[in-house]
Amino acid sequence: MKHLAILGGGPAGYVAASHAAAHGARVTLIDAKPLGGTCLHQGCIPTKVLVESCALLEKFKRADAFGLKISGEISADWTSLKGRFNEIVSMLGDGIDQLMADRDVTCIRGYGRLLDQSTIGVNDQTISPDAILICTGSRPKAQLGFNVDGSVIGTSDDLLNWSDLPASILIIGSGIIACEFACILDSLGVDVTIVASGARLMSSADKDVSVVLQREMRKRGIKVIFNSRITSLSHGGSGVEAFCEENIIATAERALVAVGRQPNSQDIGLERADISVNTNGDIVVDDLYRTDVPHVYAVGDVNGRSGLAHAASAQAKQAVDHALGRHYTMVRERAIPVAVFTSPEIAYVGRSEDEAKQDGLEYVIGKFDLRALGRAHALGEISGFVKVVVAKDTGHLLGLHAVGPHATEIVHEGALVIQKYGKAEDMRATVHAHPTIAEAVLEAVEDALGQATHKPLSNKRQLNDVLQYS
Ligand SMILES: Cc1cc2nc3c(=O)[nH]c(=O)nc-3n(C[C@H](O)[C@H](O)[C@H](O)COP(=O)(O)OP(=O)(O)OC[C@H]3O[C@@H](n4cnc5c(N)ncnc54)[C@H](O)[C@@H]3O)c2cc1C
C-alpha cells in the first residue's frame, strides 16, 4: 500500500486525502489549522454566505415590485451575519473531519516542513512517505507602504473578523475578491469606493462582462476610480488616505486591501529538498503537478496556476492518481470555470473574445441579452447576457461568458463542452428547459451559428456557415 503525506488541508489537501484514501492509499494529512483551508474559513464559504444574505436583502428592498407588502424596516445585522457564516463553516468543517475519519486518514495538527526530498517533520514526528503533496495554499499579498494593521486597513481575512462595519470603505484592487466585497459591503449599507490600477474591473473577464458589472455597480452607487495605482495607505484624519505618490486619491473610514494573493512557499523546507519557485514564489510544477523532485507534487494556490478552489481540488485528484499509478485525466486549464459572486453574478470559461483575437483565431461571436427571457423578468434581474466565442472554421466552442442571475450555474454547460472539445452545434441541438436562464446559452449559440430564435433577423452569412458545421 502506497503512503502519501499531504501538507495542508484546504480544497487541494483534504480532497487529495479523500481521493487517495478512497483508492487504497495510506494517507497522512498535516495542517496547522482546522481542515478546510482558506476556502472554508476565510474565502469561498463565508463570503458566499454573506452574498446570499445580501441577495435576500436586495430582493426584500424591492418587495413591492414583486407584489409583496412588507411592513417595518428590513436591515442587516453584521453580528448575526457573522454568526450565520461561522455556524455554516463549523458544520462543513465537521463534515471534512468526518470524511477523513471515514477513510482512515491520519490527521496531524501541526506546522510541517520538508526535512529533505522524502521526509516531512511535524511537531516531534518525522514522516517518510512514498509521495508528498504540498498543498499549503496562499495568503493575502503583503504590499509595502500599505500599513495593514488589521483593524482600519485590513485584508479580506481581517474584514471577516471585524466586529462592526465602517460607514465608508476604500477597496484597493479590481479583481474577484475586491468586486465581491464591493457588492457585499454596498448591500450592507457601507459607502464603497473601489480604486483600480487599470482601466476596468475584472480584467480577467471578457471586456463586455466588465462593462455590465461597472454599469450595475455605478447604478448602485459604488464609486470606481480607474487607472490609479495606489502607492501607500496611511492612517490620517478620521480614517484612511490613499496616495498615488504624493497625491491623495481617496479617503474613507477604513480600507480593504485586495491586491492579490501570495503562495505559502516560504519556511516549508523547499530549499532543503532543492525544489524551485518562480519570481512570484509559486512552486514550479510540470503538467502533472510534479515539482523538481518527481515524487513531490505541489497543487492548489501554492503553484500559482489558478487561485480557485475547484481548480485546486481537480489538480489534487490528478496528482494523486498519478502518484498512485492510476489512470488519470489531465486537468484542462482552459475548461476550468470561473465563478464570481458579484451582483450581478459573472461566470466564464475558455477564451474571451480578446484572447481568441490574441491567439490569432478566426471566430464568431454569439450574444443574447437576458432581458428577452421570461425567467429573467420573473427573477426581476434582466441586466446581463450570455456570450459565446465559436471557432469560425470548425464550430468548436472557444469560450462562454455570462453575466446575470445564475451565471455561476449555467457556465458549466460551457465547461463541459470545452472539456470535451465540443461544438456549438452540439449545444444548439441540446434542448434547454423553459423558462430558464440557460435558454440564453442556447440563444447565444444560435446567434453565433446564424440566427437566434428570439432575436431580429440578422447575419445570413453565419447562417450559411452553420450548414457547413452540421
Ligand atoms: C475572500 C476569498 C473568497 C474566495 N472565494 C472563492 C470562490 O468563491 N470560489 C473559488 O473557487 N475560490 C475562492 N477563493 C479562493 C480559494 O479560497 C482558494 O483558491 C483555495 O482555498 C485554495 O486551496 P488550497 O488548498 O490550495 O489552499 P488553502 O485553502 O489556502 O489551504 C492551505 C492549507 O494549508 C495549511 N498550511 C499552510 N502551510 C502549512 C504547513 N507548513 N504545514 C501545515 N499546514 C500548512 C493552511 O493552514 C491551510 O489550511 C476565495 C479566496 C478568498 C480569500
Strand and helix map with partners:
Elements: E1 3-7, H1 13-22, E2 26-31, H2 37-41, H3 44-61, H4 78-102, E3 106-109, E4 112-114, E5 120-122, E6 125-127, E7 131-134, E8 138-140, E9 153-154, H5 156-159, E10 168-172, H6 176-187, E11 191-195, H7 207-220, E12 223-225, E13 232-236, E14 239-244, E15 247-252, E16 254-257, E17 261-263, E18 296-298, H8 309-323, E19 338-340, E20 346-350, H9 353-358, E21 363-369, H10 374-379, E22 385-391, E23 397-403, H11 407-419, H12 424-429, H13 439-449, H14 460-469
Parallel strand pairs: 1-2, 1-7, 2-3, 7-18, 9-16, 10-11, 10-16, 11-12
Antiparallel strand pairs: 4-5, 5-6, 8-17, 13-14, 14-15, 19-20, 20-23, 21-22, 22-23
The protein binds flavin-adenine dinucleotide (FAD).
Flavin-adenine dinucleotide binds at residues 7-13, 30-33, 37-39, 42-44, 47-48, 111-112, 135-138, 156, 177, 264, 268, 300-302, 307-310, 312, 341.
